[in-house]
Amino acid sequence: MTRYRNFTGVSKTAGLAVAVAVAFGLAGPAAAQESSFGGFEPPAGWLPPPLDPTGVQLQTKQLAPGVYALLSTRPPVDNSGFIVGEKGVLVIDAHINGAMARQIQAAVRAVTDKPILYLVNTNYHGDHTFGNYAFPAETKIVAHRETAEAMRHFDREKALLLPLVNGNAAVFDDVRLRLPDVTFEKSLRLDLGGRVVELHHFGPGNTPGDTVVYVPEAKVAWTGNLVLGAGSIPWAIEGNTPAYLETIARMAARLDVETIVGGHILMTPGETLGSYLDYLSGHIKSVQRALGAGKTLEQTLASLPLEESYLPPKDSPLAAVRPLMQGVHLWNVKRTYQELTARERADQQALAQ
How many separate domains does the chain show? Predict the structure, then answer.
C-alpha cells in the first residue's frame, strides 16, 4: 500500500525542491548542542526541525471563498491561514515573532479591511504563539485550556526553541508573552458573520491541547502539529502514542476533511489521516513486540526503521524531509519503549504487593 499522496494545491517545482533542501540543511552546530527536551534525551539520528523564519515569506493561497492558507516559502517554517466572514476575520496561529505576525496581518489586509476578531493558537509552542503580542489588542486570542496553561512557561519555551532556530537569539528579541483571552475544552464555534468556524480538541497528540480549526463548507482543517503536513508522520513529542492514535481516530470519524493545512511542510489531502492511523497502530504493536522479545532500547531502535511507504519518494520535492521524519520515528520509538517499560514495571510491582 502506498501511503504517500501528492501535495494538495502545490505544484512540484524545482524551485520548491531547492527551498526545502536548503531549509533542512539549516540545523547546524547550535542545534546539535541541545541534548535534553523537557528531560527527554532524543535518540541518535533525530534532527531538530529548522524553524528560523529569517527571509521566509508566507504566500497566500485561496482554498475556498473567504478561506485562505498562508504557506511558508521555506518548509518546515510554520504555515498559517485566515478565514473571512461578514463581520471579521479569524487567524490561525501567530507565528514565532512580531515580524512574522505582522506579515500575517499584511496578508489579511491584502484581502480585506475587516477587523481581526479572533486569533487561534493550535498549540502552545512558541513558533505558533510568540507572535500573539503583535496582534491588535481588540483581537481575542483563543486556545485550548491546556495550551493556555503551558504557554505560561515562556522562558523555558524560548530556551527549547533556540536550537531549532540555529541558535539565532535575535529571532526572539522583540517577543513578549500574551496569553489567550478565551479558552475551551472540547469544542467551540466562532461566528464570523455568515460563516461559523469550528474549533475541536479531539485529545492529546503532539501536545496535550492540540486544536483543529475546521471550516465545514470548505472541508478544510488547520491541524497545527497534530498533522504536520505532506510527507510527514505523527510526532509524539510528549509521548503517549496510544492517546495520539485515539485522537486521530476521533478526528477522522467526526470531520469530513478534504484539505489539511498542517503547521509545517506543505498542504496534504484528508486521506493523510488514514496514514497517521496506520503508522500509530503499527508503531505501537512493533514496539510491544520488541519489548516482549526482551530487546533493549538500543536493539529496538536499530530493529525498527521507518517503513519506506511512510516517506515521501526520493525524487519528490520533499525528499529532504526524509531524514527529519526518520528522526521523528526514532523519537517516537524511544518514547513508546520507555512508556511501555515503565507500565510493565508498574504492573509487576502491583502484582508483587
Answer: 1
